[in-house]
Write a structure and sequence with these properties.
Alpha-Beta Plaits; elongated; alpha/beta; 11 helices; Rossmann fold; 310 residues; 2 domains
């Protein structure tokens, strides 16, 4: 599998403020990377450096083997970019706009028509060529923005908040398009919408205070989201030491009304052991509920842990 993006020890200072602090990652062909971070985390600054719009204070960025500082033209030719607000000309038709963008990407006259047809086909715009951009919905305008980013068949596509402002059906369509693009290109999806990452990406990174605090496959993330705690309630008072002695239980939180939260090892079920213990000790089991952790829980936990460790 070929590596299309290599980012090594990326740092960006603005005076005394370190916006991005020693960030390194790579991206292979066929991967869709979800790039997450709270406001001010350094996400946009990192994307600007990867796109070549901002020079790093320290660090190296290679796009399909080309150094973006030493070989900027060759490196940028491997990139397609959709900013959060697509740079569209509403008074042009779809064909006129995409033809203009193809010229900006340096395509030869003979290749422009084929590239425009290919871009429209990929983005579900084949019947829209003669339509004025101003008359199209926001969902179709996003598709045009993505089409202009892939006209020159780049190795890497960077999409900044591609579904903001879309209705649910349009969001589903754009997510499907992103997954399709990920089969032929590397895609970086910069977003703050957590569900977007789960449904569109193969890997996720979280940046916080300029540092990468998570770099995980979606499979690994899914494992984090399986139950790792159990809510139990007993009729009578339970013995905490006896509860803690159950295999794979790591800690016990005492709640109200004989209710407890049992934290256990990831991927292990302790429900049967707890039920058996409750029967043997005559505690009277009233509740046994596995707790699931969603993407938002994990995001908050990771960023809060990062704050605590600073």
């Amino acid at each position: 599998m070929s590596t299309l993006i290599e980012v090594n020890n990326l740092t960006r200072q603005f005076g005394d403020h370190c916006a991005v602090n020693n960030v390194s990652f790579s991206l292979d062909k066929g991967e869709v990377l979800g790039f997450l971070g709270p406001n001010g985390a350094g996400k946009s600054t990192t994307m600007k450096m990867v796109c070549g719009n901002l020079t790093p204070t320290v660090g190296e960025i290679k796009i399909n083997g080309y150094d973006i500082i030493e070989q900027p033209k060759l490196a940028k030719a491997e990139l397609g970019f959709l900013p959060e607000i697509p740079p569209l000309y509403p008074d042009l038709t779809v064909d006129e706009f995409l033809s203009y963008c193809a010229k900006l990407h340096g395509l030869k006259k003979a290749a422009i028509k084929k590239a425009v047809e290919h871009g429209k086909g990929k983005c579900g715009l084949s019947d829209m060529g003669k339509r004025l951009i101003a008359n199209l919905s926001k969902g179709y305008q996003q598709r045009i923005g993505i089409a202009q980013a892939i006209l020159h068949n780049p190795s890497v596509i960077i999409l900044d908040e591609p579904t903001v402002g879309l209705d649910p059906i349009q969001r589903l369509e754009i997510r499907s398009l992103i997954r399709e693009l990920g089969k032929e290109h590397s895609v970086i999806l910069s977003t703050h919408i957590l569900s977007e990452v789960q449904q569109s990406c193969s890997r996720v990174q979280i940046i916080h205070h300029g540092k990468l605090v998570l770099n995980e496959s979606i499979g690994g993330l899914s494992r984090r989201m399986t139950s790792s705690s159990l809510l139990v309630r007993f009729r009578d008072q339970a013995n905490l030491n006896t509860l803690r002695s159950i295999n794979n239980i790591e800690s016990v939180d005492t709640l109200e009304d004989q209710q407890y939260r049992l934290h256990h090892k990831q991927g292990v079920s302790v429900a049967a052991s707890v039920a058996e213990m409750a029967v043997n000790q005559h505690w009277g089991l009233l509740e046994l509920t596995p707790e699931k952790h969603n993407m938002e829980d994990i995001f908050i936990s990771i960023t809060q842990d990062s704050d605590a460790n600073e």
